[in-house]
Amino acid sequence: MGNPTVSSGKAPEVENDDDFRVHVFSSSSELLEKLHEKWSSVEKQPYPAMYSSIFGGIILDPAMMVIPIDDHMVHRGHGVFDTSIVLDGYLYELDVHLDRFLLSASKAKISSPFSQSTLRSIIIQLTAASKCKKGTLRFWLSAGPGDFLLSPAGCPTSAFYAVVIDHDFSQCKEGVKVITSNVPMKPPLFATAKNVNYLPNVLSVMEAEEKGASSSIWVDEEGYIAEVPNVNVAFITQDKELVMAPFDNILRGCTAKRLLELAPRGEGQGVEMRCASKILMVVEGKVAGESLFVRRPLTLLPRMVWDVQPNGSGGVGEITMLISNLMWGGKGSFLDTQGNRVPYVE
């Protein structure tokens, strides 16, 4: 899965390039010892378990959580992924994410080596083996290893990988700063499939960080608000209408879909609103009463400042927080839906 050490991105300094000598590992055991040495300094294992269809099983040793260098997902970006959450020993909305996962795979012309029910079973068993009770579970479908050509014709079979990521998360109650991105957004074919080609997304976030913001908002060529590089964006207008861009040209967010279902049900908690799927110009979004980022389950990020311009009153929106509370514990919320209980073995 990677190296636990943090790199500065700079090459090691040597007095003369001719003096630099590359170590040659004489055996696999020597290499494995080196990998274990790298992970031994990590206080808490962030990836308690991984599944690889190439290995044909679940891996608990972080030093062995690797994928082949000639996997087409690595060198050609020919792969798709999705993410579910683990909370209190339950996997939430796994089937919803698997549905989108396989739809993305179909758009990428990648056939799964397993049926959807088998993928579901693998993921649940992986989570059980990880013993993780809170975190995320990310899974990938790749064209598979085989060669370094463009076409996947030389790949004997597709590959399925999944990893449990042990990390804490909680309800966000603080606003974030965003900018309008200058990085071109993805065309619809690539934006509507959750694929591993994330260079535009990465550059867009880096652009925001360089300007002191946490993220950015993509706007199409006609000036309409589309999405954030890794989340959907919603607006609450002055007349309390929840507005979100249609999913024709952007990724269909699972949490966004759930939000549109929940918001009209919040009358008992002081939320009385209509929901609409329509496009907004940037100027309309900036003058909206409130706005929020809608990302993985349970995570709603209130937006406070956009291109230096404060959102509404300049603070976290009251309606945004009421909706967030609905997501976290109201009737029909993520926590109120039927999750998949993970059969942990103590």
From TrEMBL:
Superkingdom, taxonomy of origin: Eukaryota
Keyword Cell cycle listed: no
Keyword Transmembrane: no
Pfam families given in the database record: Aminotran_4
Cofactor: pyridoxal 5'-phosphate
Keywords: Aminotransferase, Pyridoxal phosphate, Transferase
Gene Ontology molecular functions: transaminase activity
Gene Ontology annotations of biological process type: amino acid biosynthetic process; carboxylic acid biosynthetic process
Family the UniProt entry places it in: Belongs to the class-IV pyridoxal-phosphate-dependent aminotransferase family.
Protein name per Swiss-Prot or TrEMBL: Branched-chain-amino-acid aminotransferase-like protein 3
Organism of derivation: Phaseolus vulgaris
